[in-house]
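C-alpha cells as discussed.
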C-alpha cells in the first residue's frame, strides 16, 4: 500500500514553477496566531503614528532649545579645526626627509 502511494504520488497534480507565487500559487493557511500577530503589528503602528502626530514639545517650545546649551558653537569650532587639519600637510624638515638615507652609515 505504501509503495502504491509512493508510486502514485508523482502523478499527483502540483503547482507549476514556484509554488509560492503566481496565478496558481499555494495559498498560506490563515489561523489564529497569524491573525493575532497582524493585529498586534497594526496596533503598534497606530501607536507610533499617534506619537508622531502629537509631539512632546510644541513648535514654539522646540525652537532654539539647543542654543541655550551652547553645543552648536563648540561643534562648529571643532569641525572647523578638523577641516583645517585635514587640508594642511604636516610640517616636514629637510633632515626628516633625508633620515631614510642614513640608515646604513657604516663609516660612522
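Sequence:
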Amino acid at each position: 500500500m505504501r509503495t502504491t502511494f509512493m508510486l502514485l504520488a508523482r502523478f499527483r497534480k502540483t503547482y507549476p514553477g514556484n509554488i509560492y507565487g503566481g496565478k496558481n500559487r499555494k495559498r498560506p493557511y490563515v489561523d489564529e496566531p497569524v491573525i493575532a500577530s497582524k493585529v498586534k503589528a497594526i496596533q503598534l503602528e497606530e501607536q507610533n503614528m499617534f506619537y508622531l502626530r502629537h509631539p512632546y514639545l510644541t513648535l514654539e517650545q522646540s525652537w532654539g532649545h539647543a542654543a541655550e546649551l551652547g553645543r552648536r558653537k563648540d561643534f562648529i569650532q571643532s569641525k572647523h579645526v578638523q577641516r583645517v587639519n585635514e587640508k594642511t600637510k604636516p610640517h616636514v624638515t629637510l633632515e626628516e626627509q633625508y633620515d631614510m638615507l642614513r640608515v646604513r652609515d657604516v663609516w660612522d
